[in-house]
Specification:
By secondary structure, chain A is mostly helical. Chain A has 7 helices and 2 strands. In chain A, a hairpin with a 2-residue loop joins strand 1 and strand 2. In chain B, strands 4-3-7-6-5-10-11 form a 7-stranded mixed β-sheet, with helices on one face. Chain B starts with a helix and ends with a helix. The chains are: A mainly alpha (143), B alpha+beta (211). Chain B: Belongs to the SCO1/2 family.
């Protein structure tokens, strides 16, 4: 019985990952896909209200998370943005934004790794895991 | 064959013609039954709660009142500009309604800020234009704490200053639909996409009452 259950859950998980990755990026390996699944859940709770379900943002209040160039150029600052918030003028997809993003200081490194894996692979064009180590490293050199 | 098609067509026409009239939105709130004496006879009258008269300062620093909403149906809600939690979702959803009914002078929108300290008219103005609101069909207002919190009760929306919640204010994200008589005709969870869809179709149903 236990074995059947385990197999069933395992099977469902594979189908879940396959579905998630098939919507967007087909080349994600299983670990990246798993991080992204967890990240999507956390994204819904902590980011979606402002940045939208598809990372589309809201008017000129909240910037979209779909600026691939911004995400890859500032990859080492993304964890800092989540942990410490962001203020001041920035240009995203050619539009200027200048509002306050509050610090989400309660999120830990694993949560941030999950969220950033989801954001960078599904809204950006990255294809690898945003690891917990990368988060810890980035947080050491926040601007 | 042609007969069959005709039959189907007639039935569907009849169905289409009868359907829309059958729906009417309820009046929400505890009604009061009172006895009145009219021409010497006792009659029973039902009174529904209504939104009382109000006056608030809007995003252009102009005093607006319930008079601005005469002969209009409107959707009211409560928010604040730097709210980190439910407001962005609620305003994103209300924006859908604004965009759908933009240019229709029979429909208006009224967002009350519950942060009377920070949300001065110029803050509301900048917020409104960044959200994408570029006409006076959607008003953003501020007022004294007593006035704003007092009227939120009448709209059946809970609001409270609370330093323990994110942003400093606790409130619920309801969108409240008001008719010409200032009665509440629908209450929708502004953080839910399905309920927002329902609001959009209920606005059409309510508009039809005034055709």
């Amino acid at each position: 019985m236990k074995l059947v259950c385990t197999l069933l859950i395992f099977g469902l998980m594979i189908i879940g990952f396959a579905q998630l990755s098939s919507c967007h990026n087909n080349n994600l390996n299983i670990q990246t896909a798993q991080y992204a699944v967890n990240g999507q859940k956390l994204y819904k709770i902590h980011c979606q209200n402002c940045h939208g379900a598809k990372g589309e943002g809201l008017g000129k209040l909240y910037p979209p998370l779909t600026d691939k160039n911004f995400l890859s150029k500032n990859r080492n600052q993304l964890a800092c943005i989540i942990k410490n918030g962001l203020k001041g003028e920035i240009v995203i997809n050619g539009e200027t934004f200048n509002q306050n993003m509050p610090a989400l200081s309660t999120l830990n490194d694993v949560d941030i790794a999950y969220i950033l894996t989801y954001v960078t692979t599904h809204f950006g064009d990255a294809d690898s895991t945003f690891s917990q180590d990368e988060v810890a490293q980035s947080l050491k050199d926040c601007k | 064959m042609i007969k069959n098609i005709l039959a189907v067509a007639t039935v569907s026409l009849a169905f289409l013609a009868c359907q829309p009239n059958s729906k009417k939105l309820p009046i929400i709130g505890d009604r009061e039954v009172v006895e009145k004496v009219v021409d010497g006879k006792t009659v029973i009258d039902t009174i529904y709660p209504a939104i009382p008269n109000f006056e608030f300062l809007n995003q252009d620093s102009v005093l607006i009142s319930d008079k601005n909403f005469e002969n209009k149906i409107y959707v009211a809600n409560f928010f604040f500009t730097h709210c980190p939690s439910i407001c962005p979702t609620m305003q994103r959803n209300l924006l859908k309604a604004y965009e759908k009914f933009k240019g229709n002078s029979g429909v208006a929108f009224l967002s009350h800020s519950i942060d009377f300290k920070h949300d001065q008219p110029h803050v509301l103005k900048s917020y409104a234009s960044k959200l994408g609101v570029d006409n006076d069909q959607w008003q953003f207002v501020t007022g004294s704490k007593a006035d704003i919190y007092g009227i939120s009760d009448k709209y059946l929306v809970f609001t409270k200053e609370d330093e323990n919640v994110a942003g400093g204010y606790d409130h619920s994200g309801y969108l409240v639909l008001i008719d010409h008589e200032k009665h509440i005709r629908g209450v929708y969870d502004g953080t839910s996409e399905e309920e927002t869809e329902k609001l959009l179709s209920d606005i059409d149903i309510l508009l039809a009452e005034y055709k």
